[in-house]
Each structure stands twice: as structure tokens, then as C-alpha cells.
Write a structure and sequence with these properties.
The complex is a heterodimer of chains A (about 500) and B (about 450).
Chain A (H helix, E strand, L loop, with lengths): L4 H17 L4 E18 L2 E19 L2 E7 L5 H15 L16 E5 L11 H15 L6 E17 L4 E18 L5 E7 L1 E2 L7 H5 L8 H12 L2 E2 L3 E7 L1 H13 L4 H4 L29 E3 L21 E5 L2 E2 L9 H8 L11 E2 L8 E2 L4 E3 L7 H6 L3 E13 L5 E13 L2 E7 L1 E6 H6 L1 E4 L6 E10 L4 E9 L2 E8 L4
Parallel strand pairs in A: 4-6, 9-19, 10-17
Antiparallel strand pairs in A: 1-2, 1-5, 2-3, 5-6, 6-7, 8-22, 10-24, 11-12, 11-16, 12-13, 14-15, 17-18, 18-19, 18-20, 20-24, 21-24, 22-23
Chain B lengths: L3 H16 L3 E17 L2 E19 L2 E8 L4 H17 L16 E6 L2 H4 L3 H14 L6 E18 L6 E16 L5 E8 L7 H17 L8 E8 H15 L2 H5 L21 E3 L21 E5 L2 E2 L6 H7 L13 E3 L8 H8 L2 E4 L2 E8 L4 E6 L4 E4 L2 E5 L3 E6 H6 L1 E4 L3 E5 L11 E5 L1 E12 L4
Parallel strand pairs in B: 4-6, 8-13
Antiparallel strand pairs in B: 1-2, 1-5, 2-3, 5-6, 6-7, 8-22, 9-10, 9-12, 10-11, 13-16, 14-15, 15-18, 16-17, 18-22, 19-22, 20-21
Helix pairs in contact in B: 4-5
The chains are: A alpha+beta (about 500), B alpha+beta (about 450).
């Protein structure tokens, strides 16, 4: 079959009607007319990844007597059989019923989302892209630098969605990711590194022009070399409790691991226990739990320039912007339509009113699950980074993850970072290496006492969030200001 | 052998490329995957995917370009994919070393690991077994079961223009994980099974394992152990994690050459771990899935990394081998077949517990990461089934306990290993299906393991 969306729609619509006629309560189909990824990576100047991946196919979900069935195929002549398989799977699942899955009230939508792009990276000749990356690689060369990495990934998707409620939406999604890193051994033989990811202030567009913007990427090459030189000359961070000032380059992962994952409703309800883990949050805590200090305002945001912005989620629900944590109190969670009834029943009251528009699938051959979108922290009242440093007697500033390990219910964590700067009596001082810190989630977020203003807020992309069975890698974003936490355990005691 | 239609398309494309003087590698991956996902003691989702992926890589001297396609492969798609790979190669930057072009060393046609019954295991059959477990295991209080059961078949086919040899493999695999969670105390128990064929386990096996774990959880409160160095009895899944970390941090040729591994500065013959530690990559071991070739066409055979604690070999894929002037070792793949050789300890967990005396029993490690690979430093936390041992008996469940230590320290402080090995499934289902398992002793007793944090919950 020549796979135009119109032709696929002509096959899908009668199949959706058939599902209802055969007793299904809901069904939907996602057709990926295009799912293209290009990955380019220079390692010490050698082009070690020069590949493009193209995928095309359809995924079908069926809800039957409160249980889900899913099937996917790349054979577009076999779409009716794919519906049959999804229905059969749902019937099999319904043999061991639990709390019945339910889509709630129908809210049909029609529309199209097009990611803001000035220059489609796939229209830029490969030779030009490689010349750009090679130029950066040349900039990263320097005395004492042992390894250099420059990489970029471009993603373009054209997705069409239909469901039995009449929703029909399409999306043209574009994402650009990039990383630069320099590495070298220190005097103890330990490899140190410094890196930067393509980032922004959340505005702007998502095409080649973003990568080409000096402020967002290339302009940081010299800085990371200088930072690495300072790290190589530095002493290890002495262990101890001190204030921790987290820059957005580290804060995004702190939020991701200890707020974002913990607030995914499928984790809260126990559907991820056998793989990704659970959550310390229980449904009855929504609306009541003090997750952090009054300074903590966290939202599932709609940020213009972010891989966590997609217009409509994979249930066709228009993406919306809402608070997850308001002035420290947990007020909502990341959800799709399917588990709201179960969450409310378990809580014994209505704790979630509508979909969190977080149903997302990573490919046509994966089913949507509850995922992060843009999990952002609102900028705060405490001024610039310099203002926060001036207000700190004894602390460190940390940036950029090296390692991360989190308890299975997201109740505790251990992070390593590339770099730390000492703060003493309101002044930023020497650099430390081998920085780690650890803590317990609620205690940690309740120790948040300074939140930087808009000038400190940055959008960090996450290209590789893993979750789900079958496993799924998802793209998303975090807009994060500078944050300060009191009395945190830092460094490694022995 | 591969389905004739696809095989003919690919061999014809290879021959055409060769005639045109194009050096190309073709790697076809086909999977049929099915999974049921459980939550709240019910089947919440059943999935099925049939996917064909084709990777084509083209090399011209020091330039390499590739293209991958996920679609139902036709002649036109194949031609276009090869064309894209050639375009990517033309635009590529030349490397500063001579890349090694893939060559199928010897023909392989291996379907010994394929079980049609497992390939077609129905969601109804899976649901039936899980329902039997859920019906039989009745802990006190409020609880529920969750988990997943993935089964499927995988075909891997690799050819290149270097010669007419073909490497083909078809196998089936499955993995069941069931988790029992108590809703108030929030402890979590897990039972896990790996399979190569249908009927590898029964509901009765799983019920018995859950029931053996329940009394200590129901009879004692959670125990918050102390931070510091302790004796730990690791169970099989944790041993598999430790083995993976030890290999990744110490034996990857590229990291070794770049002095980024904890073995940097050492050479084969140097003492690395305790005498009891022998590590191999052994595709012929009966516990593992046994990958017979890698994706440079090299025939894979038993390869020794550590023998009686002594460093013997490092793993070089073709890229690292070419760059650093070494011989590739058959490791252009993600699904190796690592084996930690059994020790001399009496078989059975009871024997391990008796030997351990007072210790922590940690059978799973969750979310391990490497803050410093050059020292082999890792950190991760206990998860399912972790218990306190006193006088060789389980006396209390452990609250979530963080281990932060180094691979050289853990494998240097081995007290004893069970003489019985078991398979541990280490497959992920990210991207393509890729069955992977390791063979490890069912327990490993280790002294001076560094505990760095303890939570107030499981």
C-alpha cells in the first residue's frame, strides 16, 4: 500500500467502527507516516555514528471489558489483521480482570500540531552538518584533553491519530538534540569530564537554527575546556553536610528523577513495579502531601521550544499546562485518561479530575503510557545566581550529572556531578572534583529555600528517558531555575 | 534458515552491490514479541508486535555510512535503503584509522534455540498461569500482584559483500517477573523466571517461592541497617548486576586503551580479583542464550576475561580493534554471554545463609550507576526480597539499602561462591528484541561491602 494518511484513514475508520460493534468500549490507532532519526557522532574527530533510521507503521489499542489489548505492524496491507490481534489481546487480558480501565467522558478533538521550526534539519545537507560538528570538534582540541565527543540527533515525526470517539489529530514533531564533551585523566588517574547539552530559555524554534545558535550550544565550547582544566587541578570534594546550589544543568535530573517519575500515575498505581519501580506517593496523598517547601512550584508545562511539547498526547487529548506541586503541596500527577477512575477510587475521593495529557508512546509499535512532558520548576523570588551565592555561607554549586541512582520508589537518591564550586561567606571559590550528593526525596525538597529568578531559568532536553514494558525511550524537557537546598549530605564518606 | 523471499532479496542486493564495487553489510532483525502486563492482580495490557528491521552499512576506505529501516522489507525499500547508506558514506568524514569491514568468517545456520510453542504462547495461557499464582498466594493484609511476561522469537541474519557466507540465528525466549506488594507496609517480593522453551516453569514453582519468602515479611518489621562496611550475601540477580558492572567498567577494550577503565595500567597476567573469581564470555554455556556470531561476522567462542582472579582478556569490538591495532574478539554486539564460574560453596541458598551467619541478604540491586568507572565505583540500592540474616537465618526484611563500592573491592573480597550456577535474564526490550542472559552462582558471599545510606521504607 502507498501509505498516505488519507488511505490509511480509509482503512482505519471502518475498523474502529467494527471494534465498537464487536463489543469494544474504546479503540484508537496511531499511524506513523514518518519516524526519522539521524544520529551523528564524532569521537576524537572520527565519525563513529553516521546513520539514519526510518520507521513507518501503525499501532492499534482496544479496550475490552476494562482491559487493554495492543498490536502493531509495519505491514500496511495487514491493518485489519492488526485490529483483530489487538482485540484478541484485549479479550485475553480481560480474563483476569482488576479495576476496569475506563476512558472517562469522551472529549473528541480535531486538529493539527506543527512544531515550530525555521529550518528542517533533514533539509540541511549531511556534508554541512558534519562540517558544523567537525568545526566544534576542532574547537574542543587543546592541551591535556584526552577525548572529545560532539554529537547531534535530529528527529522528525508525522503522526496521525484516530479513535472511536471521533478524535482525529495529526502532529508534525521535530526535535534536535546535541552534546559536546571533553575528557581527561586527573592526577589520580580518574577520568574527569565536562559537557554541555543544547539548551534554551524555552522560547524559539526547534530546527537547525536552534543548534546553530551560538548561545545555545557552540558558544560553550571554550567554557567547558576551561572548566575541565579547573577540574583537573582541583581537589576532591571533602564530605560533609552543606548547602547545595543546583544549576539547571543538574537540577533538571533532580526534578526528573525525584519529582517527575514519582508523580507518574501508572507508577503510583503499581503498574511499573516489575521494571521501573513504584512511587512513594499514594493516590490519597494527592492534594495533601507536603512534597517540598513553600518555594516549590512545579508544573507539567507547555513550553514552546521543548521535546516535551507535542500538541496532542497519544490519546488525542490537547496538551495542557497545570501544576503538579503548588507552594510545596502535591496537587496533581502525570496521567492519561485510562487510570483516573482507579486513582480516585483508591483515594476514596476525587483526586484527579481530568487527563494530565501525558499518554505518550515512543514509536508506532509501543502503547502509550504515563510519561513526563515538560516538568518545569517556576522561577522564584530569590534573584540571580550571584544573589543566591551572596546569601550562602557554606555550600557548593553543582552542575551536570555524571551518575544517578534512585531508590525503586523514588524515595532516596545519589547523584554524581561533573563539577562543583565552593561557596564560602557569599563568594564563589575553588573548584572541586568527584562531587556526589545524596538524600531522601521529601526531606530534600522541603529543604529548598532559594529559587532563582527568570534569568536563571533554562530549558534542558532529555532525549533518553527509559520506562515501560516493552521498554520505551522518550524525549521530554525540563525548565529549571537555580535552586538552593539546605544542609545536604555531600561527598563520599569512608 | 531465513524465509526464502527475504533471503533472496538480501543476497541479491549483496551481489548487486558487490558487482558495483560497493562494500556493504546487511543486518536483518525480525521479531515476534508478545507481552502481558499485570497490575493490581489483573492483566492490564496484552501486546503483540511483529517487526522487521534492516540495517545497511556501507564502507569506502575510511568512510562509513549507514541506514536503518523498520518496515515490511520490499525490493524497492531495500534498494532505497542501500542508496541512502551509500549517500551517507559518500558524505562521511574519513576516520584517522582503517575501519575493519565485516566478514562472515564461517556460515552459521542456528535454529537450535527455537521453540515454536514458546513463539506462539498465547496471552490466555500466560494469563492462566498468573491467575493460578494470584489465586494461591494469599498474604495477610492488603496486597496486590503486578509484573510482566514477555515471550517471543528473534531472527538475526547477517551478510556482507566480503564473501558469500551467511550467518543466521533464530531463537525464542521469555521472561516472567511477578511482584507481590503489601499496600500498608509497602514491602515488595519478586519471583522471576527466564525461559528458552514453553513449559520451563509452572505456577507451582512460583507459588512455592513466594510462600517461602512470605513468613519473614509477615512476621517482622522492616530493619534499618547501619551505614558502614558489612558482610553481604548477594543473590543471583544482584550477582548478575555486579558481574555486568565488573565487565563494563573493566574489560571494554576501548575504555582500557583510553585509560578509562579500572584495569587501566594492568596487563594480562596481573592479579585483579580474588582467586575464586573466573569470568568468561561463553556462548556454549547452557544457561545463556548463546550468540554464535557477532555483527562483524566473527564466530563467537569461549573467551576468558578473568581466570582465578587473574586478568586474561579484554573485549575489543571492530572499532576499538581497528583504532588501537588489536584483534577483534567477537564483541560487535550487545548481547554477550557472560559467565561467572561457580565456586566451591555448598549449593542452595540455605547453605549460603548458614555460611554467612550475620549478614545482609541482597538478592537484587536497583538502578545501579557508575560515578567513577576508572575506579570501578558503583552505587545502587537493594530492592525486592532483601533480608537481614542472623545466625544464618532470615529474621527481618531490609529497608532500602544503598551499596556504594567498587568492582575490584567486591570481587576482591569474595568469601565464597555457590557451586551451583543459575541463569539470570538480562534482556531489555528497548529497541529490538535481543535475548540476553548471564550464568552466575546462585549466591556470592562478600565481606566489607560498603553501605552508604538506608531509607525508612522498603
Amino acid at each position: 500500500m502507498t501509505a498516505t494518511p488519507e488511505k490509511i484513514a480509509g482503512v482505519v475508520r471502518p475498523q474502529l467502527e467494527r471494534l465498537l460493534a464487536e463489543g469494544g468500549s474504546f479503540g484508537d490507532a496511531r499511524f506513523y507516516a514518518e519516524d526519522a532519526n539521524q544520529r551523528l557522532m564524532l569521537y576524537d574527530g572520527n565519525l563513529e555514528s553516521n546513520t539514519r533510521t526510518d520507521e513507518q507503521g501503525i499501532g492499534v489499542r482496544v479496550l475490552w471489558h476494562g482491559a487493554w489489548g495492543f498490536a502493531a505492524t509495519a505491514d500496511l496491507d495487514a491493518i485489519p489483521a492488526c485490529f483483530d490481534r489487538a482485540l484478541a489481546n484485549a479479550r485475553a487480558a480481560a480474563q483476569l480482570p482488576g479495576f476496569p480501565k475506563d476512558m472517562g467522558p469522551a472529549r473528541p478533538s480535531k486538529g493539527e500540531y506543527v512544531a515550530p521550526v525555521e529550518k528542517d534539519p533533514f533539509d540541511v545537507p549531511l556534508a554541512d552538518k558534519l562540517a558544523f560538528l567537525k568545526g566544534l570538534d576542532e574547537q574542543l582540541k587543546g592541551e591535556g584533553i584526552a577525548q572529545r565527543v560532539v554529537s547531534a540527533r535530529f528527529q522528525r515525526r508525522r503522526i496521525h491519530y484516530w479513535n472511536t470517539e471521533g478524535t482525529e489529530v495529526s502532529r508534525r514533531v521535530m526535535n534536535t538534540f546535541a552534546t559536546m564533551m571533553v575528557m581527561a585523566p586527573d592526577k589520580d588517574g580518574r577520568t574527569q569530564r565536562r559537557s554541555v547539552e543544547l539548551n534554551s530559555d524555552g522560547a524559539g524554534t526547534r530546527g537547525w537554527e536552534w543548534l546553530a545558535d551560538e548561545n545555545c550550544f557552540a558558544g560553550h565550547a571554550e567554557r567547558i575546556k576551561q572548566d575541565l582544566a579547573a577540574i583537573l587541578a582541583a581537589e576532591p570534594l571533602p564530605p560533609g553536610r552543606r548547602d547545595l546550589i543546583i544549576l539547571p544543568g543538574q537540577g533538571f535530573l533532580q526534578v526528573h528523577e525525584t519529582i517527575g517519575h514519582a508523580l507518574e500515575l501508572d507508577r503510583i498505581l503499581g503498574y511499573e513495579l516489575s521494571f521501573a519501580g513504584g512511587s512513594h506517593v499514594r493516590p490519597e496523598m494527592i492534594g495533601k502531601l507536603r512534597y517540598g517547601s513553600d518555594k516549590l512550584n512545579c508544573r507539567a508545562g507547555v513550553t514552546a521550544n521543548s521535546p516535551g511539547t507535542f500538541g496532542y498526547d497519544d490519546e488525542g487529548t490537547p496538551q495542557r499546562d497545570y501544576y503538579l506541586i503548588k507552594e510545596g503541596i502535591l496537587v496533581n500527577v502525570l496521567s492519561s485518561r485510562t487510570d483516573l477512575g482507579e486513582a480516585n477510587a483508591r483515594a476514596g475521593r476525587e483526586v484527579v479530575k481530568e487527563s494530565g495529557t501525558a499518554a505518550r508512546a515512543c514509536a508506532f509499535y509501543r502503547t502509550p503510557i504515563d510519561r513526563m512532558t515538560n516538568i518545569n520548576i517556576d522561577a522564584g523570588p530569590d534573584g540571580t545566581l550571584d544573589d543566591i551565592v551572596r546569601a550562602t555561607e557554606d555550600g557548593i554549586i553543582v552542575d551536570t550529572p555524571v551518575s544517578w541512582s534512585i531508590g525503586s520508589n523514588r524515595e532516596h537518591f545519589h547523584f554524581g556531578t561533573e563539577i562543583a564550586w565552593e561557596v564560602k561567606d557569599g563568594k564563589r571559590g575553588r573548584v572541586f572534583k568527584n562531587t556526589t550528593y545524596q538524600g531522601h526525596t521529601l526531606e530534600f525538597w522541603n529543604s529548598l529555600d532559594k529559587v532563582g529568578d527568570e534569568s536563571t531559568w533554562k530549558l534542558q532536553s532529555v532525549p533518553n528517558c527509559g520506562k515501560g514494558e516493552p521498554n520505551q525511550i522518550m524525549e521530554l524537557g525540563h525548565g529549571i531555575p537555580v535552586m538552593r537546598f539546605k544542609n545536604v549530605q555531600t561527598g563520599e564518606k569512608e | 534458515m531465513l524465509e526464502p523471499r527475504i533471503r533472496e532479496l538480501l543476497t541479491r542486493a549483496r551481489d548487486d552491490a558487490r558487482k558495483r564495487g560497493v562494500s556493504a553489510e546487511f543486518n536483518l532483525h525480525r521479531e515476534k514479541s508478545s507481552l502481558i502486563r499485570l497490575g493490581n492482580s489483573s492483566v492490564a495490557l496484552a501486546t503483540h508486535e511483529e517487526l522487521t528491521r534492516l540495517d545497511i552499512s556501507v564502507q569506502d576506505g575510511r568512510k562509513v555510512g549507514s541506514f536503518s529501516l523498520t518496515a515490511d522489507v520490499t525490493a524497492d525499500q531495500l534498494k532505497n535503503a542501500l542508496g541512502h547508506a551509500e549517500e551517507n558514506c559518500r558524505a562521511a568524514l574519513p576516520k584517522d584509522y582503517e575501519p575493519i569491514f565485516g566478514t562472515v568468517e564461517e556460515p552459521v545456520d542456528d535454529s537450535a534455540g527455537f521453540d515454536p510453542e514458546l513463539e506462539s504462547l498465547s496471552p490466555e495461557a500466560k494469563t492462566g498461569l498468573c491467575a493460578a499464582v494470584i489465586k494461591a498466594v494469599k498474604p495477610k493484609g492488603a496486597y496486590d500482584f503486578s509484573g510482566s511476561w514477555s515471550t517471543g522469537s528473534t531472527e538475526m541474519y547477517y551478510i556482507t559483500t566480503a564473501n558469500d557466507n551467511e550467518a543466521f540465528r533464530k531463537l525464542t525466549d521469555g521472561r516472567l517477573v511477578l511482584v507481590l506488594k503489601e499496600q500498608q507496609k509497602k514491602w515488595e517480593l519478586s519471583v522471576e523466571r527466564t525461559q528458552k522453551a514453553a513449559g520451563a516453569f509452572t505456577a507451582g514453582d512460583i507459588i512455592a517461592e513466594f510462600e517461602s519468602l512470605l513468613p519473614v515479611y509477615e512476621g517482622a518489621e522492616g530493619f534499618r541497617t547501619a551505614v558502614g562496611r558489612q558482610r553481604v550475601l548477594f543473590g543471583a540477580q544482584a550477582v548478575a548486576e555486579l558481574l555486568g558492572l565488573a565487565v563494563w567498567g573493566g574489560f571494554i577494550g576501548r575504555l582500557y586503551e583510553e585509560k578509562r577503565s579500572y584495569t587501566a595500567g594492568m596487563k594480562p597476567g596481573d592479579k585483579l580479583f580474588a582467586d575464586a573469581v573466573t569470568i568468561t564470555d561463553d556462548p556454549e554455556n547452557r544457561d545463556v542464550f548463546g550468540m554464535p556470531f557477532d555483527f562483524s561476522g566473527k564466530r563467537r567462542r569461549r573467551f576468558t576475561l578473568v581466570e582465578n582472579g587473574v586478568l586474561r582478556g579484554l573485549l575489543y569490538d571492530t572499532m576499538a580493534a581497528a583504532k588501537y591495532g588489536r584483534k577483534p574478539t567477537g564483541h560487535d554486539l550487545g548481547n554477550d554471554d557472560f559467565v561467572l564460574a561457580p565456586g566451591r560453596g555448598e549449593p542452595g541458598l540455605d547453605a549460603g545463609c548458614k555460611l554467612a551467619g550475620d549478614a545482609l541478604y541482597i538478592p537484587h540491586l536497583h538502578y545501579i550507576h557508575l560515578p567513577d568507572p576508572t575506579k570501578g565505583l558503583f552505587t545502587g540500592s537493594s530492592r525486592f526480597n532483601a533480608l537481614r540474616l542472623q545466625g544464618g537465618r532470615f529474621t527481618a526484611p531490609l529497608f532500602s539499602t544503598r551499596v556504594t563500592d567498587t568492582s575490584p573491592s567486591v570481587f576482591g573480597n569474595v568469601v565464597a561462591l555457590s557451586s551451583k550456577n543459575v541463569p539470570v535474564n538480562t534482556s531489555s526490550t528497548y529497541a529490538r528484541r535481543s535475548p540476553t542472559a548471564v550464568s552466575v552462582p546462585e549466591w556470592l558471599l562478600c565481606d566489607n561491602v560498603r553501605i552508604t545510606d538506608v531509607a525508612d521504607s522498603f
